[in-house]
Amino acid sequence: MLKTIGQRWCALLLAALLLLGSLPTALAAEGATVNVSSVEELLRAARQCSLDSWSRGRTIVLTADLDLKGESFTPFPIFCGVFDGQGHTISGLRVAESGSSMGLFRILQEGAVVRDLTVAGTVAPSGSACQVGGIVGVNHGAVQNCTFRGVVQGEGQVGGVVGMNRETGQVSGCTAEGQVAGSTATGGIAGQNEGSLLKCSNSAEVNTSSPDASAPPENLDDALEQIGSSEDAAGGESLLPGHTDTGGVVGLSRGVVQSCVNNGTVGYPHVGYNVGGVAGRQSGYLDRCVNNAAVYGRKDVGGIVGQAEPDITILPGAQRLEQLRGELDRLQSLIGQSVTSADAQGDQISDTLSKLGGYAGSAKDSTNILLDQTAAFVDGNKSGFDPVLNPKSGLTSYKKHVEPEPPKPKKEYLTKKKLESLISDADTQIADLQEQFKTESGGWTYEEVVKDFGSLEDFADGDELTKLKGIQDQIGQIAADKDQW
Question: CA of 228: how far to CAs of 219, 231, 396, 419, in Å?
């Protein structure tokens, strides 16, 4: 009897120990820190990010320099946590697979952070190749104090650090070195920016190679047809082979670009539209940026911005107007003294100085009126305007606040080969999302859910419903794009 009781207590104690032993792992699933010190651990972490749930609330800490040369590396599909590079370098990166949203991280979600990391290698995907960055393809989060060294190539939204920086995205203290090349919206730091780029520096060459020209026409009819197609694509203007929206820091910006520097050559002589030392085309806010390198292009080429829209109205600051009024007072006083002294010298000199005195008085009156109008504007009419103060010149810029319009779709001429590649990429993405839907739903397809339950709302709720609807929305968007093609 006692032996039986003792065996039962031993069994209960063993079960309790096993339960307690598994408890830390369960508690660590949320908010855990994962140390990565080898290539194998990095590859494993990238695979585990196929679902956003694994990285949410998790911090990955890089504890050593890693070389991916010769490794079959697949980019982090989606990342929601914190990746702390601790100043280490991931070298030998090579991304050449087909598709868009490519980089070391394909998509960085809102709230996610990648910091203190250096990446070296080549990111040059095939296929659609849009939203391509050396470190992040599409950024909704924060990329801080990161450096990319190497080559980045793509079609649209191509950047040395980030391909597409969305509204919530922030890229700060980042640098790029090497070469960046793309057809539209290409920049040393970011291809397209809708968020903010702060204190970034680019030394990479951007679109400095001669673009590949199309095959020469065989006869006059073919030549005229080729010119007509180019004019249609360019909105009536003959478009030579080249690139559009190319910038040393950012190709196309609708967000904030603050205190950024470009040291890399931008553009190719006589080729390209909207080419700028800092931004190729911008309709957002750009301040205290510097370009130290040569800029080349065919049309709308600028040392800082190739094409700026909308126009910005600049009004003098109140402090500078007060200074001007004081100087005019002094000038008018000196002219008065000169008139008195010149009376004895002749009527002509006296008349001339009197006219100058009248001009000075008129300028003073105009300055007073302008000062009053400026004060009234600043104090009572700020709504609807965004002020921009330049402390060095004392000038304040007031830009009328205009909500950015959605970009107008551009007419594209797709080759059969490129169209087939786009459709193949879309089918692959849809298949991947459908598998993700089945994983999240416990093995159900969307069609089965609708058939048996009527709708997603009747099948799931809470976070699960949100995830399933998000996946299905992505499938619908890709399918709609595919139908347009």
Answer: 15, 5, 46, 21
Residue 344 DSSP code:
T
Give the pTM.
0.58
Asked if 136 and 113 count as a contact pair (C-beta separation under 8 A), the reply is: no
C-beta of residue 82 within 8 angstroms of C-beta of residue 59: yes
Q: What is the pLDDT of residues 60-77, one digit of tens each?
A: 999 999 999 999 899 999
Nearest to 248 by CA among 303, 286, 184: 303
Q: What is the mean pLDDT of residues 202-219?
A: 71
- Written as six digits, the tokens of 392 are 């060095």
**What distance lies between CA 403 and its chain's CA centroid?**
18
Judge contact between 157 and 163, C-beta under 8 A. yes
Q: Dig out the tokens for 304 from the structure.
A: 């800082």
Residues comprising the chain, all counted: 485
Q: Which residues pair with 258 in a beta bridge?
A: 198, 287
Sign for the CA dihedral angle at 159, 160, 164, 167 comes to negative
Q: For residue 453, what are the β-bridge partners?
A: none
For 64, 78, 444, 466, 467, the CA distances from 457, given in Å and listed in that order, are 46, 25, 14, 10, 12
Distance CA 357, CA 350 (A): 10
Q: What's the CA gap between 370 and 331, in Å, rounded?
A: 19
More confidently predicted of 213 and 150: 150
pLDDT tens, position by position, 1-35: 434 444 554 444 444 444 444 333 333 344 699 99
Percentage of the chain surpassing pLDDT 90? 48
Contact 164, 134 (CB under 8 A): no
pLDDT of residue 456: 80
* Strand (E) or helix (H) holding 362: helix 347-380
155, 183 Cβ separation under 8 angstroms: yes
Q: Quickly count: other Cβ atoms within 10 Å of residue 229's Cβ.
A: 13
Q: How confident is the model at residue 241 (pLDDT cuts 50, 70, 90)?
A: low
The arithmetic mean of pLDDT across residues 203-214, rounded, is 79
Concatenate the DSSP letters of all residues of 366-377 into one string.
HHHHHHHHHHHH
